[in-house]
Amino acid sequence: MKELNEALPFPPTRRDPESGFTLHGRRFDDPYAWMERLDDAETQGFIAAQEAVTRGVLDGVPGRDWLRAAVTRSARYARLSPPIRTGPNGREFLWQADAEDEKLKLLMRREKGAPLETVLDPNTWANDEALVFAVPSPDGTRVAFGKAVGGTHGAVIHVLDVETGHLLPDRPRGTDHASLAWRPDGAGFFYSACPAPGEVPAGDEAHWNAIYEHRIGSSTPARRVFGDDHNKEYWCSVKVSECGRFAVLSKWDFVHANVVSLLRLADDVLLPVAPVMRSLHQVQVIGDSLLIHTDLDAPRGRACIASLAAPTEWRTILPENEDTLQTVVGVGGRLYAVYNHAASHRVHIHAEDGAYLRELVLPALGSVNRNEGDGVVSGVSGAWTGDEVWVSFESYVQPPSHYRYAYATDRLTPYHVPDVGLDPSAFATNQVWYSSADGTRVSMFVIHHKDLPRDGRMPVRLSAYGGFNISLQPRFSAVTAAWLKLGGVLAFANIRGGGEYGRAWHEAAIKTRRQNAFDDYIAAARFLVAEGYTTPARLASRGNSNGGVLVAVTALQAPEAFGAVFCRAPTLDMLQFPKFGFMSSATVEYGSPDDPVEGAYLAGYSPYHNVRSDRRYPVITFVPALNDRIAPPYDPLKMVARLQAENTLGGPYFLLPLRASGHGGGTTLTALVEQDVDELSFYCWALGVAPLDAGAADAAGAADAAGAADAAGAAGAVDAEGAG
Question: Which portions of the sequence form the region Disordered (predicted)?
């Protein structure tokens, strides 16, 4: 690798030996702090020069055309959401995208049987503009939508008159608009936002999130109805109850705890439901009762019921058990409880009083729920007073799909199961268990083609997250589908810090216990080698966001365990992360550098401060999203410069900047496909994987497509007796 490093034309980078800071009496040098000024010509020159080297490697990988074709086949498919019923005469809205579309569009059917009309088509916007959310008014005559530029954060609300197709002049107060819910009469809406510039001291613009109410056509600024006057780190979300009597208001301490209140819309009286910030809650109004999902006094979750007359007096109806209760929702007069059973989902159906009725059998091992800004959102949806039950489902080998569920016949019927050219029956998804450094048992999913021999040299892509109470569950992506077609193996470790096994599992790897997550991940890599799947040289470590921190730390702590590392949108300077935007809120997860104990612990693993010259680190690609509002986009720049200067034994170390991209990637499907092709090209180059030739690719694609069609047809017969 030393010879390879010397052969690559990495540019010389200015090092400022005087730059640094002192923390708790210890001096930390920061020789590349100047790169934090992203718009400076010197920084832009560094990015361009590094990108040129990276492109020279990735663009020269044999088989990139095959990789692009494979990713495109699994990325470009027709998408269709369940309908959003609203307004009189059966008016409904839905999300749709054809295979050639770059972005999802919002469509409307004016009445039952009427043709679909396009309401919002972001494909006609600039490439870097994203439609982040769109919410129809209760009568279906208006749509409030959020548009962002260069990513999916920082949305601005606009209001469209559906009948005329014109935008209203309304410009709601604040910045970074989200979590919108209309008043039942359509006269206005509630939404979350950060303050407008000038409303808070300079530097606090990303804080003091609150709920505002905007009245359509009003020249008066939106009024602030809910928030916190003392803790600027909290953020808020809002929903309006199905009955239209209440707004359900939540205030969050990141993802660790929240408080919930009801705003009675008839008189604006605020009613506390969960007033103490020490546990997590989701609240739904069903009839004259409140359905409350909580982990208060139940680390794996329980469900409670309360009267609207006494909303803080809860009665448990679904007690805590060995599985983690992720969500419970009331639909069609019944309760649908989604449990995380060993990192995949099971759905139990209960009567309103909690009595168990039956299990809703899913098509395969997979996921129903999804993580969003306001916590975990149930994949079971519908109205409490309605008769439609919608179930979302996906797996490692099946894309996000939607089903109708009929309770009377106990039948799950496909509504939209996309064809992505992958035959699920051709792949095996196995769950294995291994021991971490302290003896803790950790689960991991391993996915590969059924006919792939375990010869000890299979190329493996290992991933994990391990933070913020987020569960790593079976998810489909085009890049993982292409990796499977390439003959690769996927491994997903459910390490501590995530939410797979409840609050205790999450809290086992926060603050000064973060090493547990790192140990769990390193043990996963070593298990895959010991069990004959692969060798360290053929094992790629991939992490995004908090997972990016994970793969960077473990590459430095156990470099011999990995052959390559793909580190996307990470935070790498753990001693200065709170100064970036709202990242100061993340101290509840990582700990605070200002605390003497937590600061010393952070210094012990902060990747930027723990580069050693005497270790042979694996080849690493660092991937910053230059429009990132979540993680500091300059951290990967600083890290690459430091590694290239201070560790010549290992590497090489590449910078792959994502331009016009936010934390979640590009705003068009083409951009996302190209980012996936780059990722796969890196694995092929680093692990010595040769993509299939074009003829073999065409044959494999045809076979997979035929298998996928057969699987989609078979899915029409899925029911409680026939599901596997």
Answer: 1-20
pLDDT for position 372: 79
Nearest Cα residue to 473 out of 528, 394, 420:
394
Residue 7 burial (CB < 10 Å; 0-12/13-18/19+)?
Answer: exposed
Please tell me the predicted confidence (pLDDT) of residue 2: 54
Q: Are 513 and 591 in contact (CB under 8 A)?
A: no
Structure tokens belonging to residue 363: 């098509």
| 82-86: average pLDDT | 95
Evaluate whether 75 touches 422 at the Cβ level (below 8 Å).
no
Q: Which two tokens stand for residue 432?
A: 């294995």
> Which amino acid is it at 616?
R
Residue listed under structure tokens 């503009």: 129
* CA distances from residue 119 to 96, 164, 171, 185, 464 in whole angstroms, order as listed: 11, 10, 20, 21, 38
Is the bond preceding residue 652 a cis peptide, omega within 30 degrees?
yes
d(CA 674, CA 102): 13
Helix (H) / strand (E) containing 233? none
Write the pLDDT tens digit of every residue in 560-601.
999 999 999 999 999 999 999 889 999 999 999 999 999 999
* Rounded Cα gap, residues 69 and 55, in angstroms: 19
CA distance linking residue 382 with residue 388, whole number of Å? 6
Nearest to residue 583, comparing CAs of 26, 238, 153? 153
Burial of 6 (0-12, 13-18, 19+ CB in 10 A): exposed
57: three-class secondary structure by DSSP: helix
Q: How many other C-beta atoms are found inside a 10 Å radius of the C-beta of residue 548?
A: 27
Position 345: which residue type? H
- DSSP class per residue in 544-600: ETHHHHHHHHHHHH-GGG-SEEEEES----TTTGGGSGGGGGGHHHH--TTSHHHHH
